[in-house]
Fold ATP-dependent 6-phosphofructokinase.
Amino acid sequence: MKTIAVLTSGGDAPGMNAAIRAVVRTALDKNLNVMGIKRGYSGLMNGEIVPMQRSSVADIIQRGGTILKTARSKEFKTEEGRKRAVNILKTFRIDGLVVIGGDGSFRGANELSKLGIATIGLPGTIDNDLAYTDFTIGFDTAVNTVLDAINKLRDTSTSHERVSIVEVMGRNCGDIALYSGLAGGAENIILPEKGYDEQELCRGILEAKMKGKMHNLILLAEGIGGAEALAEKVENITGIETRATKLGHIQRGGSPTCSDRILASRFGYRAVELLEQGKSSRVVGTRNGKVIDLDIDEALSQPRRFDEKLYEIAYALA
């Protein structure tokens, strides 16, 4: 192993830059050459590959987004496209590749591995929807972004005695809503893993008002519906003024938290170690506070574990 490359693919996540930095500086520390591939698999197909030095990743650990940019590539999804990608990597004498992204990015890495390129995947997604790892890069920052928003929304919601429904990201995984809802003291947390009863929700809101509660905060995961449609139904049934807030892509931005910076740094370091050891088609993650790695196919085949206990706690404390 003489030369490795790193790319970011799929949706961006805070902490990706910290992971890039860790990969580059660890590789250089081990006397490996490092290349940066811009715009993910799309940039790979176009040969957007540049040498990386220690100075290339200076002052980026605190920045959100990804300095390498990210994009999606339809061409790479074809067998012919992947073969061309391998030829491009070989043209640049790249022996190993670190892919930072989600499940789709990992599947692409796995296909490259089958064609002779050593690949290691790092979980970079705010959704926290990869079952094999307890946490993904960017999740903690996204949760804190949501928490800051709902703290502010609670102030205005209380002033107007409103119901406030906040829609957060996560695709079909409700972790952002669950964690931020618990930390933010939400009265209701609606998740795709659990579902909800509309009439029961509205009855709870009315009962809370009768007991003197001046506001009601509901966290809604995007995978189960839209905040605006639910707000209209809640207001029609309860007669209480209800406002919807969709936080959207604000959750993907911002300076990564300490937790995400450390997680990304640990993952990046381990990725280079694995490539140096001749490993391929593996992904790095964390389980019970320890950094782990396992086969990509095995990782992606694991069913996602929903934290029932955390959900129970959230409702007991609401």
